[in-house]
Amino acid sequence: MPEKSKRISFPKEVREYVFQRDNHQCQSCGKTTKLSIDHIIPLATGGSNDISNLQTLCGSCNSQKKHYFDSRFDRRFS
Ligand SMILES: [Zn+2]
Question: Is 56 helix (H, G, I), strand (E, B) or coil?
């Protein structure tokens, strides 16, 4: 069984790398404020902490995405 990736706080260098790669824009709506690092494939569903699984999202897109995945998660396992 593969070991699950743990949620970590990203080093400053990683955050800056991802922000720069994504031009300091939310990859969903294009906003440039309140940016955070998001896991494209959530850790809960087997995603990794690799840079290729990270993207820049603004706070509101990030929380919408969490709701979306949470409801799928609930359906799948209920
Ligand atoms: Zn956004």
Answer: strand
Inside any domain, residue 2: no
Which pLDDT tens digit goes with each residue over 46-70? 999 999 999 999 999 998 876 655 5
- How far does residue 31's CA lie from ligand 1's centre (Å)? 5
Asked if residue 4 is part of any domain, the answer here is no
**Cα of 33 to ligand 1 centre, how many Å?**
9
Domain count, the chain: 1
Contact 35, 58 (CB under 8 A): yes
Residue 27 alpha carbon to ligand 1 centre in Å: 7
What's the predicted TM-score (pTM) here? 0.73
Q: Which domain holds residue 61?
A: 12-77
